[in-house]
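Sequence in, structure out.
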Amino acid sequence: MTAADTRARVETRRVPADTRRRAARRSTQTSAPHHLRANRAAYLMIAPMVVLLAIFVIWPLFYSFYLSGFRVSFYQGRQWVGTKFYEYVLTDPRFWHAIKIGLLYAVMTVPTGLVIALILAMFIKTLKGALASFMKTIVYLPAVLSSVIAAVVFMFMYQDAGVVNWLVHLVGIGPVAWLNNPDTVLPAVAVPGVWIGLGVSTLVLLSALLDIPDSYYESARLDGANIFQQTRYITIPMLRNVFLFLLVTGFTLTIQEFQLPLIMTNGGPVDATNTPNLYIFNSFRDFTPYATSFSLAAALLLFLVLGAISLVIFRLLRSEKAIDG
């Protein structure tokens, strides 16, 4: 047998082996879903965050629901009680009063902050160069301040001889006990809340405004639309998704406001600023032996309330697909 015959016989034996390997490779590729193969890099990049989310958020949340069914005490062993502490919280009038205060506080701060932020963003959009950068810095400064500092500053401003009473005295109104009157204390606490959150909302809206094509406004001006008509029919509809994001995050955060009412009023007077987180905090500090279980059940019920509020906002203000200019 010649060398050529030997090579030909070897090559004929290799063909089935190569075919089998290719078939096995094709079967492996087709076994995985198409979206996994197409987005493999994206899934690998988000995998670490998913792991961290599962460890530090999802697992503690499920464990909290499990633990809320026990009577937990630092001095005795755990005892299963089922939904008893949920019943205690739901029948406590102070819990529902705290939810009401949190909702009122959110209604005062979030829409007001969005309107002011939209006006500021539209104004900054008209500026150019260094002046625009300066205004962005000035607007964002409150966001980097601590809530504790803001609370202390506004406490001095609300004093009888403070700046706020000096201003209202100019229009003929006597000194007002802003932080001691149940009718004025919640709006007084809401003012620094709006001020602190104004910077982030303004910059988010400004970036969204800059993403709207100028051709839309040019066409509207050619049709004779004024600034108010342009805002109503172009700006606001194009910012629907941004408003949805700011409303959901804003309501979720402001209902849980803790530092401002704690420092400025400690929940008073007569629980007029006793927000849900402050209520949970005071329940945990209670001297009863099972304050831990009670406050844990209250926190989980607050979590469900926040989820329900987010669903309502999503139903009332539905998002739309982004439009590329």
